Amino acid sequence: MSNLSLNVIIGIATAIIGILAFTNEFPDKKPLNIFKSVLIKLIIFIICSGVILLASIQKDSNNDVQTLNDKAAAKKEQDKRDFANRKLTDQSNAKIVNTFTAALAEYNLKYDASQKAIIKLVKDSAKRVIQNTTKINPNLDISNIVLTKDIKDSIDLDLTIAATKATAYNIKSKLSAAIEQNDGLHFIRKNVPFYPSGGSLSVDNNFTTSIHYKSSIKPHYIYLHFIGSYTNEDGKFFPIDNIYYYDLTKKNWGLNTEPKYSSVKDFFMKNESN
Predict the structure, then answer these.
(1) Cα dihedral value 233, 234, 236, 239, nearest 10
(2) Residue partners of 169: CB distance under 8 A and separation at least 6
């Protein structure tokens, strides 16, 4: 039954109850007749109230059904829009890939997904295609510095190095560390080997070492000079020469930048060899 019909029924039942409220006079004052009249009014009132209650419940049920239907319709429309958007995205991605592939082909190149590298296609005199792979070079650097102890007269730092993009080979690295106090910079370690000489480090692994400093005077900063070299799998040489800081007040770290970089770099260069 529609909500309009239910509203009509509720209106009629409410009107009947209203009419009963204005019919208080009894034509016959005899107790039995009064009782019969009150009983009839009570029965009519109960019936009308029941009709109103049932109609209201049915209206609520209709509204719930309509809400569910509206949500289902909205979801269906959203699914249609999502499908259309995915289709457009797939078409756009396919167009980008085709354009990228065509552009590479103009220069006798192609992308090898298995090696994640761009391949150079070279045709020999027999018109055979030879593939020259452009290697992805590794990057070896400090990836994390963690303060593991900071008490009154003792500080410990954990330093982690990691290779990204590709495996680093033939690693040769050293680490110098200096603290900054009110009177300037002071070494706490100098040219100490950081990683086993000649070793390699893959992208799935990292290596951690610790620095320990013990003094009654707490420094403001610790500066770290990470130097050395490594190669890719073909033996291409890559130097390492970076300076990092650890701020003991803010408990953060990063690459040293100007204006502080030049003075710290100069300190390491002048004193590391002594």
Answers:
(1) 10
(2) 138, 200, 230, 231, 232, 233, 235
pLDDT by residue (tens digit) across 22-34?
555 545 555 555 5
Q: How far, rounded to the nearest angstrom, does the alpha carbon of residue 104 sit from its chain's CA centroid?
A: 33
Q: Taking the domains of the chain in order of start, what are their residue ranges?
A: 3-78, 139-271
Q: Is 163 exposed, middle or buried (0-12, 13-18, 19+ CB in 10 A)?
A: buried
Beta bridge partners of residue 133, listed in sequence order: 119
Question: What single DSSP character describes residue 222?
Answer: E
User: How far is residue 39 CA from its own chain's centroid?
Assistant: 72
**pTM for this one?**
0.51
Tell me the average pLDDT across 259-273: 85
106-to-103, 116, 134, 168, 272 alpha-carbon distances in Å: 5, 20, 17, 33, 52
Which residues, at least 6 apart from 77, have a Cβ–Cβ distance to it below 8 Å? none
Of 154, 158, 155, 131, residue with least CA distance to 144: 158
Question: For residue 233, is it left (φ>0), alpha (ψ between -120 and 50) or beta?
Answer: alpha
Q: Count Cβ atoms below 10 Å from residue 229 Cβ, excluding itself.
A: 15
What per-residue confidence (pLDDT) applies to 9?
Answer: 67
Q: In the CATH hierarchy, which top-level class contains the domain 139-271?
A: mainly beta
Residue 18, pLDDT score? 62
Distance CA 9, CA 54 (A): 10
- Kindly state the tokens that stand for 139: 């990057």
Contact by Cβ (8 Å): 229, 172: yes
User: Which residues, listed in sequence order, are joined to residue 139 by a DSSP beta bridge?
Assistant: 164
How far apart are the C-alpha atoms of 256 and 269, rounded to whole Å?
Answer: 15
**Beta strand pairing call for 206-214 and 237-247:** unpaired
